[in-house]
Amino acid sequence: MSWYEWRPYVSVAERRRKAQAKLKKLKKKGESIAPVAIEGRIIAKSFWGKSWCTNLERYSDYANRLPRGRTYVRNGSVVDLQIGKGEVVARVAGSELYTIKIAITPVKKPHWTSICRDCAGTIDSLVELLQGRLAKGVMDRVCREGDGLFPSPKEIKLSCSCPDWADMCKHVAAALYGVGARLDESPRLLFVLRGVDETELLASAGRDLALAGSAPSAAKVLDDGDVAALFGLEMAEPANSDAGAAAKPKQQPERASKDGKDAKPKDKAALKGSKAPKASATAKQSKTPADKKARAAKDTLLTATQRKPEQVIPPIAVPKGRAQRRPLRAA
Question: What is the DSSP string of 178-238?
């Protein structure tokens, strides 16, 4: 058979049987095999998987070969798919077992920083990020054509071991659709493939929220005087009231009497007994009805505690020899 003649048709079952036989030999050599299994006709169901497939179909460079690739991936021809940083390696069952290598350029640092800045403050947790439960603005930014997270055709280099001359053969198309199906199972592989850390989106969101958080306004903070007036309490003076103490005028000494003699000093005991508890300036300023009631209750309590205990009359002792009267029994 010459190079330009069509190869004999091989059924899908026969292709898969031959591919499985070769994969068994690779497993014996210690290689890990991860086939792509699709149930039904839907290739991808999650946000990340659908977005990957949509990104492929938006470019006209791939329009002619993608339909054949969808057929191959649906019938289980992608028998192995490995995703690493900047590279996808796959094995697709055709007339033979072909090896596909897809090189994808990692996201540039300024490009990734721009994505993180635009998505800051909108992603609450890593679970929501990987499950695709994102706001519409974040979805549009991540899927934006040209500067989003998904690669453009100029960032993808394709190669296949099949004799097809086209870069985008049906085997390569099947491998690309297999990536979308694999993102349903492990969406984190997209960030691994593009060479970025998905947690930086969350870290940027945390820094943004920390900077955006402002202190409560002064109108929402109660002053000590307002608290005292509200609950009828006497607020203690702050410890660092040196300025207030310095502002108080010094007490002037008692002036001498008219006859030249000093005034008699007051009795210390009387002064000590009549000394009332010093009230704070905040409590003196409050003149609300609630404060007056609280002050009256406190004065009543102080008066009751300062009273002398009443004299207790001892019981009268009964002299010995005099019998005590027994209580009368009821008839």
Answer: HHHHHHHH-THHHHHHTT--THHHHHHHHHHHHHH--PPPGGGSPPHHHHHHHHT--PPPP
Residue 287 counted as domain residue: no
- Domain contains 301: no
Band (pLDDT 50/70/90 cuts) for residue 283 is very low
**Is 112 contained in some domain?**
yes
Structural domain for 129, as ranges = 12-211
Q: Does 71 score more than 80 pLDDT?
A: yes
Number of domains in the chain: 1
b/e 213-244 (16+ beta carbons within 10 angstroms → b): eeeeeeeeeeebbeebbeebbbbeeeeeeeee
DSSP-derived secondary structure letter, 321: T
| Residue 217 forms part of a structural domain | no
